């Protein structure tokens, strides 16, 4: 089941992250890469436009799709548009604690998980919690991390 995340909303609900930090999007991406590598779930995170971590509008990194809403739009609008145009909206889980976005996503048939619940799920997986996951990096995870932080010539792959 694809997961569609309201990025800044999730950051605001995670104790280890701060919306005031200029690196907040990058830090969330790192956590989502780990989540993705452990669960193999399709993950898309959508951010409002702008910010220090601005990438091209859409980019795939280690199996996580990162989308910045175009200027003049919002992450909420992008998420609703994706749910509305999906062939299987019931197969999508939208992660947000924004009541209006949650209501609209449900109206189109998507499931909604609160940002707090998703943050707790990510934390439990990272700690090897109830799911019983090994917290050591696999070879695949190591490759994702290396690709994230190094390009072939040693430059920062995201910067």
Quickly describe the structure:
The protein is an alpha/beta fold and 159 residues long. It is 40% helix and 15% strand.
Keywords:
single chain; 159 residues; alpha/beta; six-stranded mixed beta sheet; 6 helices; 40% helix; 15% strand
What does this structure look like?
This protein has six helices and six strands. The protein has one domain (3-149). The protein is α/β, with parallel strands linked by helices and 159 residues long. The protein has a six-stranded mixed sheet, sandwiched between helices. Strand 3 and strand 4 form a beta hairpin. Helices cover 40% and strands 15% of the residues. Helix 2 runs antiparallel to helix 6. It starts with a strand and ends in a 10-residue tail after the last helix. The chain has helices at 7-11, 24-39, 75-84, 99-107, 115-126, 139-149, and strands spanning 3-6, 43-47, 58-61, 64-68, 93-95, 111-113. The mean pLDDT is 83.
Which radius of gyration do the C-alpha atoms yield?
A: 15 Å
> Order of strands in the sheet with the most strands?
3-4-2-1-5-6
* Principal-axes shape call: globular
Strand-pairing-aware structural class: alpha/beta
Name the beta content range.
15-25%
Tally of separate helices: 6
Arithmetic mean pLDDT: 83
Proportion in helices = 25-40%
Poorly predicted ranges (pLDDT <50, ≥5 residues)? Answer: none
Task: Please give the number of β-strands.
Answer: 6
Distance between the termini: 31 Å
In this structure, how is the largest beta sheet organized?
6 strands, mixed
Give the total of domains: 1
User: What order do the SSEs take from the amino end to the carboxyl end, as H and E?
Assistant: EHHEEEHEHEHH
């Amino acid at each position: 089941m694809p997961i569609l995340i309201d990025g800044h909303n999730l950051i605001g609900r995670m104790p280890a992250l701060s919306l005031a930090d200029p690196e907040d999007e990058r830090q969330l991406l790192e956590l989502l890469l780990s989540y993705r590598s452990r669960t193999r779930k399709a993950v898309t995170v959508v951010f409002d436009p702008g910010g220090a971590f601005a990438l091209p509008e859409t980019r795939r990194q280690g199996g996580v799709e990162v989308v910045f809403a175009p200027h003049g739009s919002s992450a909420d609008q992008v998420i609703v548009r994706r749910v509305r145009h999906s062939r299987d909206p019931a197969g999508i889980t939208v992660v947000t604690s924004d009541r209006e976005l949650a209501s609209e996503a449900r109206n189109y048939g998507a499931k909604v998980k609160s940002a707090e619940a998703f943050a707790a799920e990510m934390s439990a997986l990272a700690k090897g919690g109830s799911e019983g996951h090994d917290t050591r990096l696999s070879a695949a995870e190591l490759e994702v991390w290396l690709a994230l932080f190094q390009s072939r010539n040693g430059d920062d792959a995201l910067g």
